[in-house]
Amino acid sequence: MRKTLRATAAPVFAAAFVLAALSAPANADTTPGTTESDADIAAEWQTAWDTYHFTDTTPPAPDSGRSRVTNSISVDIDSPMPLTFYKYSDFNNHLGKNPFLKRVVTHKEWREAPATYRNLTAIEEIPYEGTIVVSKTHAQQRLHPDGFYYETDSWSQPNVVTHQKIDFSPLPGGKTRVTENLTFEADSSLIDFVAANGTASHQQLQEALKDAIESGEL
């Protein structure tokens, strides 16, 4: 089942982000790579933060033309909970596990008890009909090591907001259950597509991280 998921999730995930990039205005690059500096990307992050307030979890108003869908997915990892938490929550460890993720740019990191905050941008390069679509996801991650969970809020084109809470629970035999609670918010015409493909991509990443942690690669 896991091999089938990996074989199908990647192209479906690509389609979701290609749709996002091609339906977006000027912010989505459609040339290979990106020549922007980290400062330029940080400025884009700030614009998304100021414009879309993507940490706001208020449900869309009924007449807004926006909708949200919440899904929950879990994976059991044969690794102790503290170790699993730190490896899984480090977005740099997602490089090579998400097939399109090429770079994670951390703009700011600080401690505000009881959480550690990180403002960051994930940059993905998605092959599409002989070119590369560059997609940027601007996010804030809040790690709670005292409670073994973290939260991430993010925004990407075309005005897709995602709220995540990832919980880590100990299992017998030194194993860990990772549960991702995912809330997707998008225009009502796109919400089913965004939620289905976003959930599939997270399932694929879960399985890749499971293999990397259990094998000792991470």
TrEMBL record:
SUPFAM superfamilies: Bet v1-like
Signal peptide: 1-28
Keywords: Signal
Domain of life: Bacteria
Protein name as it appears in the record: SRPBCC family protein
Gene source species: Microbispora bryophytorum
